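Side project, low priority. Logging it here so it doesn't get lost.
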Amino acid sequence: MVKNDSVLVSLGRNVRQARERKELTQEKLAEIAEIDPTYVSGIERGLRNPGIKNVARLAKALGITTSELCKGVDA
């Protein structure tokens, strides 16, 4: 199992909070963003390191900018 990285945990927290504000399930967010639901789950738990294209897809699906989604995510 991958050790949680603070950058990934912060991004995952942002994704989860934005998703919950939109009242979306992980499955619905994944459908809108055209990515796998298990991948969304992994991102939210800080276990996946998504590429910038997937971060942008998630932000668009959530109706926010990529920079808003990455707010407070510092290396």
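Brief comment: The chain has a mean pLDDT of 94.
Revisit when time allows.
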